[in-house]
Amino acid sequence: MQRATAQSEKTLREMHVNMTRLGRLFWSIVGIGFGAGLMMLAALPLAADDKSDKAKPPAAISPAVDASQYAGSDACKTCHEDQFKTIDGTRHYQINTLKTPAVGGQADHGCEGCHGPGSAHVAAGGDKAKIFVFQEHSRQETSARCLNCHGESHQQSRFAQSAHDSSEVGCLDCHSPHHAKEKEHLLAQSEPQLCYGCHTAAKADFAKPYHHRVNEGLVQCNDCHNPHGTATVRQVRTLPSGDAVCYKCHVDKQGPFVYEHVPVKTDGCGSCHTPHGSTSPRLLKVSLVNMMCLQCHTFPVRGPIGPVHNQSAKYQACTMCHGQIHGSNFSNVFFK
Length: 336
Ligand code: HEC
Ligand code: HEC
Ligand code: HEC
Ligand code: HEC
Ligand code: HEC
Ligand code: HEC
Ligand code: HEC
Ligand code: HEC
Ligand code: HEC
Ligand code: HEC
Known about the structure:
mainly alpha
C-alpha cells in the first residue's frame, strides 16, 4: 500500500514537473497562455491566440477553429509530392482528431498536424514564412511540437526529465518523419549506430571481448534503456514490478530464494557485473573472481575443517564451490 501511495505521489510530482515544463515551452514558442483547451491548440499558430482567453472558463476557449486556415494534405501534395509519399499510408497521415482540432475532411490529415495550418502558405504560392519549418527552429521548439501529441499518454511523457532533453538532444536527433532510415519507429538511423553516433564510450564497451550482443542484434539498447527518459538514473528501464530490467531476460536470477546473497538484492547486479561489456568473462567488473569476492568478504572465514579459506590455489575459484552465487534454495553458502 505504502509503495502504491509513494508511487502515485511520485507520478503526480512528475506530472506536475512535466506540465510546468511544457507550459514554459508553450509560452515561449507560441506565446499563448497555458490551459487545457489552449494546449490542444498549441500545435497551431492560430491567429485567434489570445492571452485573455486564459481567464475565461474552459467552454469559452474550446477550439473554434477556422477550417479555412487549413488547406488539407491533398493540396500540399500538389507541390510536395516527395514529402507526401513519405507520410502517405503512415500513422501520421491518419492523424485526425487526436490532438489537432477536428476541422473535417482532408484538413484533419497529416501535414498540417505537424506543420500547422497551411492555407496562407498555399495562397502565397509557397511562402516559407507562412508555415512551420522544423529545420529553422531550436530542438526545444521542435520537440515541444511533437510533444503536443506525444506528451501525455505516451512513453515520451517523461522526456522533459530525461538526460537527453536536458542536454539539448531533441526528437529529431533520433527521428525523422520524412527521411527515416528505419521505418518502424521513424528512426533517423538504425540502431545501435544511432546511439553510437553520440555515445562513443558505449560503442567501445560493446566492442570488448565479453559483451551483451548488441552489435550482433540479439539485444538492443532499448531493452535496457528508454531513450525518452525514465524515473530511474541513466534512463535505465525497470520492469512493471519495479524490479531491475535485468530480470526481464535473466528470470532465473530473480528468486525469491530461501538463501539470498545479500548484494544481489540490495546493490543489484551492477555490484558485480558491468552491463555493457567487459574484458572479464561473465561481464564481471573484476577479472579474478576471488578478488571480487574479497572486496566484500575477508579471510580467514569459517570453513568445514579449520581455516580452509586460505590463499591457496584451491580456494581461488570461489564459484567452484559457491556455485549458486545469485541465491539458493538449498544451501546457505550457495553450494547448490
Ligand atoms: C510527424 C510530423 C510531420 C508530418 C505529419 C509532416 N511533416 Fe513535413 N517535416 C517534419 C519534420 C520534422 C521535418 C524536418 C525533416 C525531417 O526530420 O524529416 C519536415 C520537413 C518537411 C519539408 C522540408 C523538406 C524536407 O523533406 O525536409 C517539407 C516540404 C515538408 N516537411 C512537407 C510536408 C508535407 C507536404 C506533409 C504532408 C504530406 C508533411 N510535411 C507532414 C514533420 C512532419
Ligand atoms: C503551390 C505550391 C505549394 C503548395 C500547395 C504547398 N507548398 Fe509548401 N512550399 C512551396 C514552395 C515553393 C516552398 C518554398 C521552397 C523554398 O523556399 O525553398 C515551400 C516550402 C515549404 C516548406 C519549407 C521547406 C523547406 O525547404 O524548408 C514546408 C515545411 C512546406 N512548404 C509545407 C507545406 C505544407 C504542409 C503544405 C500543405 C498545407 C504546403 N507546403 C503546400 C510550395 C507549395
Ligand atoms: C498531430 C499529432 C501528432 C504530432 C504533432 C506528431 N505525432 Fe507522431 N504520431 C501521432 C500518432 C497519432 C501516431 C500513431 C499512434 C501511436 O502510435 O501512438 C504517431 C506515431 C509516431 C511514431 C511511431 C511510428 C511507428 O511506426 O511506430 C513516431 C516515431 C512519431 N510519431 C514521432 C513523431 C515526431 C518526431 C514528431 C514531431 C516531428 C511527431 N511524431 C509529431 C501523432 C502526432
Ligand atoms: C535518443 C534518441 C531518441 C530521442 C531523443 C527520441 N526518441 Fe523516440 N524513439 C527512439 C527509439 C530508439 C525508439 C524505438 C524503440 C522504443 O520503442 O523505445 C523510439 C520510439 C518512439 C515512438 C514509438 C514508440 C511509442 O512510444 O509509441 C514514438 C512515438 C517516439 N519515439 C516519439 C518521440 C518523440 C515525440 C520524441 C521527442 C520528444 C522522441 N521520440 C525522442 C529514440 C529516441
Ligand atoms: C543489458 C542492459 C543494457 C544494454 C543492452 C545497454 N545498456 Fe547502457 N547501461 C545499462 C545500465 C544498467 C547502465 C547504468 C550503469 C551504472 O549506473 O553504472 C547503463 C549506462 C549507460 C550510459 C551512462 C554512461 C555509462 O556508461 O555508465 C549510457 C550513455 C548508456 N548506458 C548507453 C547505452 C547505449 C548507447 C546502448 C546500446 C548501444 C546501451 N547503453 C545498451 C544497461 C544497458
Ligand atoms: C545526438 C546525440 C545523441 C544520440 C543520437 C543519443 N544520445 Fe544518449 N545522450 C546524449 C547526451 C548529450 C546525453 C547526456 C550526457 C551524457 O550523459 O552523455 C545522453 C544521455 C544518455 C543516457 C543517460 C546517461 C546518464 O548519464 O544519465 C543514456 C542511457 C543514453 N543517452 C542512451 C542513448 C540511447 C540508447 C541512444 C540511442 C537510441 C542514444 N542515447 C542516442 C546524446 C545522444
Ligand atoms: C533483452 C534481454 C537481456 C537483458 C535485459 C539483459 N540481458 Fe544479460 N544476457 C542476455 C543474453 C541473450 C545473454 C547471453 C549472452 C550471449 O550469449 O551473448 C546475456 C548474458 C549475460 C551475462 C553472462 C555473460 C557471459 O559471458 O556469459 C551476464 C553476466 C549478464 N547477461 C548480465 C546482465 C545484467 C547485469 C543485466 C541488467 C543490467 C542484463 N544482463 C540484462 C540478455 C539480456
Ligand atoms: C555478488 C556478485 C554478483 C552479483 C550481485 C550478481 N552476479 Fe551474476 N555472476 C556472478 C559471478 C561470480 C558469476 C560467474 C559464475 C561462474 O563463474 O560460474 C556470475 C554469472 C552470471 C551470469 C552467467 C552465468 C549464469 O549463471 O547464468 C549471468 C547471466 C548473471 N551472472 C546475471 C546476473 C544478474 C542478472 C544479476 C542481478 C540480478 C547478477 N548476475 C548479480 C556474481 C554476481
Ligand atoms: C558487494 C559485496 C559482496 C560481494 C562482491 C560478494 N559478497 Fe558474498 N555476501 C555479501 C554480504 C553483505 C553477505 C551477507 C553477509 C552476512 O550476512 O554476514 C554475503 C554472504 C555470502 C555468503 C553466505 C554466508 C554468509 O556469510 O552469510 C557466501 C557463501 C558468500 N557471500 C560468498 C561470496 C562469493 C563466493 C563471492 C564472490 C563470487 C561473494 N560472496 C561476493 C556481500 C558480497
Ligand atoms: C573448495 C571449496 C570452496 C572454495 C573454492 C571456496 N569456499 Fe567458501 N566455503 C567452503 C565451505 C565448505 C564453507 C563452509 C560451509 C558451512 O559452514 O557450511 C565455506 C564458507 C564460506 C563463507 C561463509 C562462511 C563465513 O565465514 O561467513 C564465505 C563468505 C565464503 N566461503 C567465501 C568464499 C570465497 C570468497 C571464496 C573464494 C576466494 C571461497 N569461499 C572459496 C568451501 C569453499
